[in-house]
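> call design_seq(struct)
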């Protein structure tokens, strides 16, 4: 069984000791997160999407058929992009998302996922689920609960 920290040191080719347990844990979190995200990004790339595009489509699927204004999409994103309007523009150009004026307030634009967008997500879902299964196969149920609790403790009080 590998000792904790050895795999990380080998991965990042670090020869000096870590500054402390917090640094080692943070670096492990960064490396693990990047590794999992790359697997999801590979699925997205096969469908000519970025991770953020997929995230917006999933948000809008959850709001289907009502949709959301841009500000609500930004608040729900896993990793808010500085230019969500440009992200949504690309989805609109591909007929995956449509824009319409809010009937309550004509100044507000509502974004909804199209049938084509829903179909694309349906096609991608099994591939994303296989990434989730790959993750599940590597982490025990008990550790998954601990990991979620730890992560929530890290970002719970974060003011964005």
């Amino acid at each position: 069984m590998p000792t904790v920290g050895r795999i990380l040191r080998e991965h990042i080719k670090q020869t000096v000791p870590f500054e402390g347990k917090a640094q080692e844990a943070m670096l492990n979190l960064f490396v693990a997160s990047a590794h999992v995200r790359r697997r999801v990004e590979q699925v997205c790339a096969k469908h000519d999407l970025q991770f953020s595009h997929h995230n917006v489509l999933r948000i809008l699927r959850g709001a289907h058929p009502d949709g959301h204004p841009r500000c609500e999409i930004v608040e729900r994103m896993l990793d808010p992009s500085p230019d969500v309007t440009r992200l949504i523009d690309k989805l609109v150009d591909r007929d995956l998302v449509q824009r319409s004026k809010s009937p309550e307030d004509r100044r507000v634009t509502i974004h909804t996922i199209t049938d084509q967008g829903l179909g694309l997500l349906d096609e991608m879902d099994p591939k994303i689920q296989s990434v989730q299964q790959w993750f599940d196969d590597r982490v025990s149920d008990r550790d998954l609960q601990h990991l979620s609790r730890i992560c929530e403790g890290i970002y719970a009080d974060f003011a964005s």
